[in-house]
């Protein structure tokens, strides 16, 4: 028993020494070291602006689904080009306590001091640029202000391009439609047939004909824009996999962002193996 215990202790020591050596051989990146130092530097913390972000009660029901929260700092009068500093939170429950300061400055050489113009934005597509439907608020403060509360009180207006219409079964397809199938709606730019789709929507338990609406809120990748001509694919899927498989039923149509009354006919069964 003593021999076994001694062996276990020896092995633990070897592993600990090995881990220590591994850590020494893989030092932290210089950028990460600098960020850690900045976050703990009292002089830098003193210059940070902090406060609470709230939403106006009249807009509480309009919060975009799965919204990201952007906090953007600019110097007075600066409307274009890279901001002074940016912070992004993928999920933020409002009210939200925030801070932004020298640690989030984008370009080396810029200084987070003096008068700062702050914009907070609840963004629906992950793109830092404002788009119709986003909700934002603004505040002008001095660097170091720790009571810089921001109220989200403005919804960005404009036409949000969508494609709407109906998905229906083609003639003679009633007996070929998978039971309890999931409906995938997929949009790709015209002429593009591989890689990530532009937009995807999954609907379960639908009854055909089904009225659909596809738009910017369904775009997959940050920065993608639901615009232009595209191929719409509707697939009644038997296994829940977005890829076409045996037993699925699909159809497609060409459409332009902004179109309504688009008719997608499920008329192409994928053969069983």
Describe the structure.
With 273 residues, this protein is of the alpha+beta class. The protein folds into two domains: 48-155; 162-269, Immunoglobulin-like (Sandwich), CATH 2.60.40.1120. 15% of the residues lie in helices and 36% in strands. It contains three helices and 16 strands. The strands form four sheets. The chain has a five-stranded antiparallel β-sheet, with no helix packed on it. Strands 11-10-13-14-16 form a five-stranded antiparallel β-sheet, with no helix packed on it. It has a three-stranded mixed β-sheet with strand order 4-1-7, with no helix packed on it. The chain starts with a helix and ends with a strand.
Produce a short descriptive summary.
With about 270 residues, the protein is of the alpha+beta class. It is built from three helices and 16 strands.
**Mass-distribution shape:** elongated
Low-confidence stretches: 1-5, 13-17, 19-24
Distance between the termini: 60 Å
Report the helical percentage. 10-25%
Give the structural class: alpha+beta
The topology string of helices and strands comes to HHHEEEEEEEEEEEEEEEE
Instruction: Supply the number of helical segments.
Output: 3
Query: What share of residues are in beta strands?
Result: 35-45%
Q: What's the average pLDDT?
A: 84
- Describe the sheet with the most strands: 5 strands, antiparallel
Structural domain count:
2
Radius of gyration: 26 Å
Strands, total number? 16
Within the largest sheet, what's the order of strands? 3-2-5-6-8
